[in-house]
Amino acid sequence: MGSELIYRGSENQPSSDSYSPKPVKPWASVTRTIHYLLREQRLLFVFVGIAIATLIFTVFPTSPAPYVAPHSRFTTLIPDSITYFPIETQQKFSSAHRLGFGSANPTSKIPLGLKRKGLRIVVTGGAGFVGSHLVDRLIARGDSVIVVDNFFTGRKQNVMHHFGNPNFELIRHDVVEPLLLEVDQIYHLACPASPVHYKFNPVKTIKTNVVGTLNMLGLAKRVGARFLLTSTSEVYGDPLQHPQKETYWGNVNPIGVRSCYDEGKRTAETLTMDYHRGAGVEVRIARIFNTYGPRMCIDDGRVVSNFVAQALRKEPLTVYGDGKQTRSFQYVSDLVEGLMRLMEGEHIGPFNLGNPGEFTMLELAEVVQETIDPNAKIEFRPNTEDDPHKRKPDISRAKELLGWEPMVSLRKGLPLMVSDFRQRIFGDHKEGSNTNNASSS
User: Fold this and answer.
1) pLDDT 10s digits, 135-144
2) What amino acid positions are annotated as catalytic residues?
3) Could you tell me the sign of the dihedral formed by the alpha carbons of 159, 297, 377, 368, in that order?
């Protein structure tokens, strides 16, 4: 028998109306959002994010960088074939030079009242004759300098006056081995430059020119540093063009006794330009002509140092051949000025850096006689193999594009060198110290 529900009394049977949801409250979405933000301090994080974004957009504005014309960096084009790179390469690598590993161009103008930021610079061969004078100028300018030298021809005495300076570091190292540093600029001077030294070990000389240059270019590529190669007038060999322009390709004996140096430097120039074209490395090339001054090696076989040392020692001045071969001689301070202008400038080069004043060996001997000993005798000897007959730079390109030309004449600069040599040969400390001060200034 089925069961049924019985409602007693006045109770009514419940209605069977269908389900209806609760009416939607006004502003429900707004209140739900507010409750969400107030829960777990979410509102605090929103305000912190807004503050951080405001700070970032204030300190680092997103306005586009000013347009740099393609010709403003690497061009003021040189009108002949010496400009080795195409227009698309110039445009590709026309961004500002990295200063301090990624900041603005160090050569740009500094606003009035702001101090120039010092660079971190490595000078290979910085304890040598030219390198030590370059280090003096860079330190005086306020840069931090790292000298790398294996002391084959360099002397620690050339840079000892910088010991204790916090902006100076000295590393005994051969550039044939890799070197890891963080720098803004690289002056690559490391290589024996006199015939006595580079003929002593010709294989080592060409390794320094090739492997050493590769290592320094690799360093420049890794850290984005600007690289300056000190090449030489010897790339012209025994020239058939006189005076020599940078467009002249030279007349070099590739198998001669001097080729370890001549061809080594020519290869170094090739590597430098290949790294520029292929890897975008900022490079500069200087072709240095005969240079003299304090701190030269006394017995390095170069004609000026030979004549000065021989005259001081009362020995005959040895002239090789007939003495009619010509050379041009620049004082070391002029060369350093040219190197620094090239590094800080906008042009790759190569640039001839030398004094266009031309002297025969007999005329140079006469100037040394006038300066040191009028009674000094001249002794003739057979000429050396592959000795160039003429050497004189055409510096019109350096004048036009770097605003550089030598200022010190041979008769003015030679006495400063003589004073330094006299101090080192005979120990005249007073006179030698005055010479060093004069050459530094």
Assistant:
1) 999 999 999 9
2) 261
3) negative
